[in-house]
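re: ur question from the group chat, yeah i did fold both. here u go
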Amino acid sequence: SDLTEIITSEIVTHCADCAAPVITAGNRASDGKVTLKWKAVYGAAKYEIYRATARDGEYVRQYTTTSTSYTNTTSKANVTYYYKVMALATRTASANSAFSNVAARTCDLAAPVVKASNNAETGKVVLTWKPIEGAAKYEVYRSGTKNGTYSLYCTTTGTSYTNTSASAGSTYYYKVRAIGYDGRAGSYSAIKERTCDCARPVVKISLNNGDPRLTWDKVYNADSYTVYRATTANGTYSKMYTTKYTSYTNTSAVAGKTYYYKVVANCSRSSYATSAYSNVVHILAK
């Protein structure tokens, strides 16, 4: 009988590669840094992120993560970067994915962190913030309501702004953003709410029939003034009197004693608009 020869090939085994991630790029609002995200790849244990400064440039590994997102904290404002991601297989390196699509993204300017206060002399609202990397200037916006329309009030190369048009007793809402040298705008700061204070009174003192008499000019939008007194310059000041007038005579002063006084201006429009204390004046009662 005929013999049939059966020839068998060697068995070849190969694990399927991980799929290439599909990445999208954005910016983190707080500091403008580039962010990447992608969906989990089946069979992947972790992911390697690569970056270049040109689409066809040299891609350098930046980070390895088990997460499906990445924030490039070393990215610099106004610089455009190119990213790709590789999925690393759980079982064997030979099953690592191909590189993802290339995602290009420019690092944004950070949002300023704004602090609000009041100028002690004038009561006007003062905004301050730290310099933002890559910023050429800053835009300051103001609204009369938190969710209202914000108008551009100032463009400055500095890191502070005094709202000289603010009116004592009125509350305003502010936000600031940085503008890069290429004209790109960063994210707005958090909204800061602040009430404009009354200006501090400037007090003069004299004697009226031996009694200390205080006088000051009218303060815009102030409807009353409160007088405080102490017996030493750095002592405890007690409230003496509140008046709608621009003078006060301390008829209870004891002859031969020296008294120290300071005054604040009060605004009926807002309890938050009281002025800073005036200058301290003193005199010997007779």
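okk and heres the other one u asked abt
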Amino acid sequence: MLNVEAARRKVPVMAHAHGAEGIQMSAEAGVRSIEHASFIDSGGIAACLENNTWIVPTFAIWAYFNARGSDTGAQDRLIEIQKATNERYCTCIKNAVSAGVRVALGSDYVGFDDASFAVREFEYLVDLGGMTPKQAIYTGTASSAELLKMNNLGKIHPGCIADIVVINGNPLENIDLLRKKLCFVMKQGKIVRNNV
């Protein structure tokens, strides 16, 4: 029913799901993307592939709370569970990536102390999600734009918005360079940083 109603109104639907059953049910219902998809299993992978459902792993949230903890204590139990299931979480996402589930880079958490979470997600997709640097860069650019139906973003092509970054070095050899060696930024065709 969800898929029919959302499609009729041309409104993509995102689901927030960690557990295998919720992930599979969301994909079968026709959601466009699933945030986290932490414990996606073979049934969820099959449902995502069959229904063209994307996943957005959000490793940065996991890393943020692992490193920072909880200021108020409200997240203590969540962090404890998260630390106990880290290996399983990474294995599940790697399995989905390997199977060809479509992946986008993003987050549904807005409480980060700095903006580096987005660029760090590229590193996590490689280090924790089993992607090559090239796959991670594609995921965070063209794939994410495609998920959002913003076809004029995420690629260098005639008719696309000229948002371009230049790195000192080759991020295909070392994904960390995206965070450490940024030297040029163009936003909508205008240079906003030039340290070349």
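fwiw on the second one: Residues 88 and 108 are 21 Å apart (CA to CA). The helical segments are 2-9, 20-29, 42-51, 59-68, 76-99, 116-127, 133-147, 177-180. idk if thats what u expected
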